[in-house]
Amino acid sequence: MGREEILVGDDVTCSVLALEFVLRSEDVTVWFGNRTLAVMDRGFFAQWLCEGGDYVVDDLAWTVEGRSVLLTIDGNRTYAVTGPSLRRLAHRCE
Protein backbone atom coordinates (compact mmCIF):
# COMPACT_ATOMS: atom_id res chain seq x y z
CA MET A 1 0.00 0.00 0.00
CA GLY A 2 2.89 2.36 0.50
CA ARG A 3 5.76 3.73 2.49
CA GLU A 4 5.93 6.85 4.62
CA GLU A 5 9.04 8.40 6.14
CA ILE A 6 8.47 10.36 9.33
CA LEU A 7 11.04 12.46 11.13
CA VAL A 8 10.94 12.25 14.92
CA GLY A 9 12.76 14.73 17.16
CA ASP A 10 14.26 14.62 20.65
CA ASP A 11 13.99 17.99 22.43
CA VAL A 12 16.72 17.15 24.96
CA THR A 13 19.55 16.31 22.56
CA CYS A 14 18.01 17.93 19.48
CA SER A 15 18.55 14.69 17.56
CA VAL A 16 16.29 13.69 14.68
CA LEU A 17 15.62 10.20 13.38
CA ALA A 18 14.00 9.19 10.12
CA LEU A 19 11.69 6.22 10.65
CA GLU A 20 10.17 4.35 7.73
CA PHE A 21 6.60 3.11 8.01
CA VAL A 22 5.52 0.40 5.56
CA LEU A 23 1.75 0.43 5.19
CA ARG A 24 -0.23 -2.64 4.26
CA SER A 25 -3.98 -3.09 4.40
CA GLU A 26 -3.88 -4.83 7.80
CA ASP A 27 -0.64 -3.70 9.42
CA VAL A 28 2.06 -1.04 9.68
CA THR A 29 5.73 -2.04 10.03
CA VAL A 30 8.12 0.50 11.56
CA TRP A 31 11.75 0.42 10.43
CA PHE A 32 14.86 2.29 11.54
CA GLY A 33 17.55 1.60 8.97
CA ASN A 34 17.56 -2.17 8.47
CA ARG A 35 16.00 -2.90 11.89
CA THR A 36 12.31 -3.68 12.37
CA LEU A 37 11.09 -1.83 15.47
CA ALA A 38 7.46 -2.97 15.43
CA VAL A 39 4.63 -4.50 13.45
CA MET A 40 1.35 -2.85 14.43
CA ASP A 41 -2.25 -3.70 13.63
CA ARG A 42 -3.33 -0.84 11.40
CA GLY A 43 -6.93 -0.74 12.63
CA PHE A 44 -5.89 -0.72 16.29
CA PHE A 45 -3.28 1.95 15.60
CA ALA A 46 -5.91 4.10 13.90
CA GLN A 47 -8.23 3.70 16.87
CA TRP A 48 -5.40 4.58 19.25
CA LEU A 49 -4.56 7.73 17.23
CA CYS A 50 -8.17 8.86 17.59
CA GLU A 51 -8.55 8.00 21.27
CA GLY A 52 -5.05 8.57 22.69
CA GLY A 53 -3.51 6.95 25.76
CA ASP A 54 -0.61 4.53 25.77
CA TYR A 55 0.17 1.86 23.18
CA VAL A 56 3.16 -0.47 23.61
CA VAL A 57 4.12 -2.80 20.78
CA ASP A 58 7.41 -4.62 20.22
CA ASP A 59 10.27 -2.08 20.73
CA LEU A 60 8.01 1.00 20.67
CA ALA A 61 5.91 2.78 23.29
CA TRP A 62 3.48 5.38 21.96
CA THR A 63 1.89 8.02 24.19
CA VAL A 64 -0.48 10.90 23.57
CA GLU A 65 -0.06 13.91 25.84
CA GLY A 66 -2.52 16.63 24.92
CA ARG A 67 -1.98 17.25 21.23
CA SER A 68 1.49 15.70 21.21
CA VAL A 69 2.32 12.19 20.09
CA LEU A 70 5.43 10.80 21.77
CA LEU A 71 7.37 7.70 20.76
CA THR A 72 9.86 5.91 23.00
CA ILE A 73 12.22 3.49 21.28
CA ASP A 74 13.69 0.59 23.27
CA GLY A 75 12.60 2.27 26.51
CA ASN A 76 15.48 4.74 26.15
CA ARG A 77 14.85 7.96 24.29
CA THR A 78 11.52 9.66 23.68
CA TYR A 79 10.81 11.52 20.45
CA ALA A 80 8.00 13.83 19.39
CA VAL A 81 6.18 12.67 16.27
CA THR A 82 4.95 15.59 14.24
CA GLY A 83 3.39 16.33 10.90
CA PRO A 84 0.21 15.42 9.07
CA SER A 85 1.63 12.14 7.82
CA LEU A 86 0.97 10.44 11.17
CA ARG A 87 -2.77 10.17 10.49
CA ARG A 88 -2.10 8.75 7.02
CA LEU A 89 -0.36 5.77 8.64
CA ALA A 90 -3.70 4.45 9.79
CA HIS A 91 -7.23 5.20 8.71
CA ARG A 92 -8.99 8.52 9.22
CA CYS A 93 -10.67 9.14 12.56
CA GLU A 94 -14.40 8.83 12.18
Keywords for this entry:
94 residues; mainly beta; Lipocalin; 8-stranded antiparallel sheet; globular
Describe this structure in words.
The chain has one domain: Beta Barrel (Lipocalin), CATH 2.40.128. Helices cover 15% and strands 53% of the residues. It has two helices and eight strands; from the N terminus they run E-E-E-E-H-E-E-E-E-H. An eight-stranded antiparallel sheet has the order 4-3-2-1-8-7-6-5, with helices on one face. Strand 6 and strand 7 form a beta hairpin. The longest helix has 10 residues. 15% of the residues are buried. The model has no long low-confidence stretch (mean pLDDT 83).
Unreliable stretches? none
CATH class group: Mainly Beta
Average pLDDT: 83
Q: Based on helices, strands and strand pairing, what is the structural class?
A: mainly beta
Shape summary: globular
Order of helices and strands: EEEEHEEEEH
CATH topology grouping = Lipocalin
Compute the number of strand runs.
8
Rg estimate, integer Å: 12 Å
Cα end-to-end separation: 21 Å
**Biggest sheet record:** 8 strands, antiparallel
CATH architecture: Beta Barrel
**Total helix count?**
2
Count of domain modules: 1
Strand content of the residues, in percent? over 45%
